[in-house]
Design brief:
The structure is a single chain. This protein is of the alpha/beta class. A five-stranded parallel β-sheet has the order 1-2-3-4-5, with no helix packed on it. Helices cover 31% and strands 11% of the residues. The chain has five helices and five strands, in the order αβαβαβαβαβ. It has a single domain, classed as Ribonuclease Inhibitor (Leucine-rich repeat, LRR (right-handed beta-alpha superhelix), Alpha-Beta Horseshoe), CATH 3.80.10. It is globular and about 40 Å long.
């Protein structure tokens, strides 16, 4: 795995609003480092598809005020379970999130229900669990 700072520099859009780390396999350790990157405060779209961040990585991301401007979050294929769904449903910094992709994860119907009924994700208009 490359250094997270290098990955951010190489994959961040020039305007600083879009970051795609698709299939970079940063895992939960990388998600924790990513959640501390001050350079990402203006980020509006984050693609972590196939990064294997799991529930611990979701915890780091949902607890980081750095991601308070996110509008789109792709967490497809990350080994996220119901604990991750609960963390997302209660994320206090995701008030601007409009689109959330959770395809190919381990979220049960109960986890899906938590997300659909979330009072924290007030602007969410697109929530995908299946292709």
């Amino acid at each position: 795995m490359s250094n997270i700072e290098d990955l951010v520099r190489e994959n961040l859009s020039t305007d600083g609003q879009v970051l795609s780390l698709r299939a970079k396999f940063i895992r939960e350790v990388g998600a924790r480092i990513l959640a501390k990157q001050e350079s990402l405060k203006g980020l509006q779209a984050l693609n972590l598809q196939q990064c294997h961040i799991g529930d611990d990585g979701v915890k780091a991301i949902t607890e980081s005020p750095i991601f308070s401007n996110l509008r789109t979050l792709n967490l497809t294929s990350n080994g996220i379970g119901d604990e991750g769904a609960r963390l997302l449903a209660n994320a206090k910094y995701f008030k601007n999130l409009r689109s959330l992709q959770l395809v190919v994860n381990d979220i049960s119907e109960d986890g899906e229900k938590l997300l659909r009924n979330s009072i924290s994700l007030i602007r969410l208009t697109s929530l995908k669990f299946r292709v």
